[in-house]
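To the team - magnesium ion complex, inputs and output below.
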Amino acid sequence: MPDGALPVLDVKGLKTVFRTRGGEVHAVNSVSFHLQPGELLGVVGESGSGKSVTMMSLIGLLPSPPADVREGQVLLGGMDLLRATPDQLRAVRGARIGFVFQDPMTSLNPVFNVGNQIMEPLRKHMGMDRKAARQRALELLELVGIPDAARRLDDFPHQFSGGMRQRVMIAIALACNPEVLIADEPTTALDVTIQAQILELVKELRQKLGMAIVWITHDLGVIAGIADRVMVMYGGQVVEQAPVRELFANPQHPYTRALLKTIPKVSGEREGRLQVIEGQPPILSAAPTACPFRARCAHAFDRCHRENPQRRAIGAGRVGYGHDVACHWTPEVTHA
Amino acid sequence: MLTYMIRRLLLAIPALLFTSLVIFLLVDFAPGSPMSQIPLTVPPDVRARIVEALGANEPIHLRFGLWLYQFFVVEPAYLLDQMFGTTLSTGRQRILSWQSRSPVMDIIAERLPQTLTVIGLAYVIGVLIALPIGIYSAYRPYSWFDQIGTFVAMVGFSVPTFLTGVVLIVVFSVNLGWLPSVYDTRLRMTGWNSFVQQAGQMAMPVMVLALFNAAEISRYMRSSMLDTLGQDYVRTARATGIGERAVVLKHALRNALIPVVTVIALGVPTVFAGAIVTEQVFRVNGLGALLINALEASDLPMVQTLTFIFAVLIVLFNLIADILYGILDPRIRYD
Ligand SMILES: Nc1ncnc2c1ncn2[C@@H]1O[C@H](COP(=O)(O)OP(=O)(O)O)[C@@H](O)[C@H]1O
Ligand SMILES: [Mg+2]
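Output:
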């Protein structure tokens, strides 16, 4: 990725805290990342690592209270979304940033037919009348590969299978030709074969439409096939970030290395037993003053308990653009 | 849908017949006799003749059979005669009240308007108050608005209507003297003055019942709305950038209303039952008061007919609730 191209989305030092009865939960801590036009950024991390909260913070989708997006900047073409008015934000949501959520079974409104739900953002953002919006909705259903689209426009969500519903969700998200599509674990709730079909669809749509994509998953195996760049999250922080080949070839953070070991080998027999990462995800009750991974880390030493590591570049390039890691420890032998 | 409705109606028939038998037996076994209201000075042989004339000495199965025949054949026939000028019911005996010797249905028709205006208005007002309160409470949970709403609802729901009724009478009739404490059924609305009078005498019973209904329904609305506002599809709707009004009042409310509408429909017959107490407190001369008087006088045909009509209402509104559910929720299909 060339340094020079202007990112479509630039997130700097994002910090989100939940105020709960039991005290504060620091779900997202100083997360920074950017997205180049047409790029697919994979975001990985086990559940609870703050992936969804990060993305929902960007466009004000978290209910507040309890959520409080405290610090940071989210620049979309020069506008800071964290300082935008509610009206400005609404003009971005669904129009310039499309969202696909994890569970297609619950993410569509059961009492409205799918045509209606696709037409809604079209009428709101593109100022289309019913007829034009319906025509466009039909095209979108065809685009996302729903057979017999004309007849299915008036069907309700419960009349579709899980995979088909996720296609409908994608149609809604893409309705207004957004610059950015954020897909939050869009295939996690689906069967493996359906998952593969959705991945194929997204690859194809990316070719056709050219939007930039953030693809959230807890499965590095999915990322390998589609992402340009990968960002690994742990305990509400970015722990490692690199182009996809580099990350798989030369993982730096002990957590990334552990994640890579958990992927079953696609071909051939499995290498021994499927690995699990030992230990619990951290409780984020305060802004961290130590490495969040220290308790589960085999390489932790005294500095890890005193100081939360900053992201540092590996090799040439700035943090965020080449390969960077937030870890005090340096692997002696880098894997080829 | 249609076949489902017909099936439901057909299934309701044996249930209703059984209910009517149970009611009949209960009323018949209850202590008291139609004679208890007749002065003791009336000699026993005259009493016996009165009982005979009423048909009250017939064996129970004959009386039940007669009542069924009258309720399901004679009364509908009479209704048709009234509407189309036919003569289907001539020569057949309608259900007669033992107390007044006039047809039970005529008395009910006479009392129905009082009950409907007071109870019906109270229910409509209750619902209209409850829905916005419930929606807003759920939208801003634990805000001061919600806290006050919760408190008022708790009071309205837990304090019985006869108590709120009496308190209102003490305050507005006895102390302030603003409103009449007794409902004047003979009042006819002829102009502005009588309209104000009518509104005045309806105010308290309507208020008592509306408060009670609103308390219950607003709680249902709140919890249902709270539940839907947390659903994934509401988040999806927000993510499409449509306005907050559309998110709440279209996407969330449309789903939240499904169970609430059912509760409202199911509540209609129970409101009639609850009104019995309120009518008594405010001396509204409606169906509730009619039932109480009939019970006191052991007026079996009247009690039987009224309670049976209540039973029919319950079955009917159950069916209506089911149908509304099917209309509101596309996932429900009855075939
Ligand atoms: N409404 C909330 N209230 C309190 N904490 C929350 C809330 N939503 C999320 N969190 C916390 O934020 C953290 C990150 O959650 P999330 O972003 O959903 O994880 P991921 O998407 O990576 O699985 C979790 O530890 C979770 O406990
Ligand atoms: Mg998530």
